[in-house]
Amino acid sequence: MVRAPTVAGRAGAGPCLAALVAGAALLVSCSSAPEPVPLRGPAPRRIAVMPIQAVGLPPDVVAALDESAHLAIEARGYEAVPAVVTANMLHAVGAALDEEPPRAVLDELQRRFELDALMWRGARLETSTRGADDYVVEWHLVAADPRGTGVLTLWAQRVAGGPGRIVDWRITGPQSAYETNPFLSDENLIARELGGVRTDIEAVTPREQADDVHGRLAALLPDAP
Fold first, then answer.
1. 144: how many CB neighbours lie within 10 A of its CB?
2. Which residues touch 67 (CB under 8 Å, ≥6 apart)?
3. Mind listing the pLDDT tens digit for each residue in 107-134?
4. Dist. CA 86–CA 105, nearest whole Å
5. Under a CB-based contact definition with an 8 Å cutoff, are residues 75 and 96 in contact?
6. Over the range 188-225, which residues count as b (16 or more CB within 10 Å of their CB) and which as e?
7. Which of 61, 81, 186, 190 is least surrounded by Cβ atoms within 10 Å, i.e. has the fewest?
8. Which residues of the chain have pLDDT under 50?
9. pTM as predicted
10. Hey, what domains does the chain have and what are their CATH numbers?
């Protein structure tokens, strides 16, 4: 996710600089935007998000991953049931929370709650060269196989997350005693090199980490029909 920088109110920042910045942001945005991965079967209408099965992650990160996953799915146009509600549904039909559901559970959830699919989610810590507590989050979209009596995995993807991951950046100028906030420089960006004047924005809090992970996973999910 890249937000296009804007020209701050600085004398001498002309249209050529604005065009250069906009072009650089567009180039990064286009080159980094992932393509959705097609589903392997009929697209569901209503998806229930299962509580995440996390191994080794801090409790506050696990809570954040459970609280906001459905919002990212809703942003793709699906009707999404939050994890806490899905947990109650699974308890109601006597299903386990720590495994992908069998066909009988999917059929019962469809009959009682009109659910078309479940999003199973898992997470585990992963050794990182950054020295941070990095982890991998997986999403598996499962549904009753319309061609048989089994369970069909419609879609499955994973991404890495963790504290301190760069989620955005801005082109900024140098700071001084009189200009304490980063600003868009009117100096020659090509001569100064783009990487030398960028400010990275990191995912630090549990919610920021969850939003980063969910945004990148949802970007791989096709839009609802």
1. 22
2. 82, 83, 207, 210
3. 999 999 999 999 999 999 987 666 667 9
4. 12
5. no
6. ebeeeeeeebbeeeebeebbbbbbbbbbbbbbbbbebe
7. 190
8. 1-31, 177, 185-196
9. 0.75
10. 15-33+167-202 (no CATH), 46-164+204-218 (3.40.50)
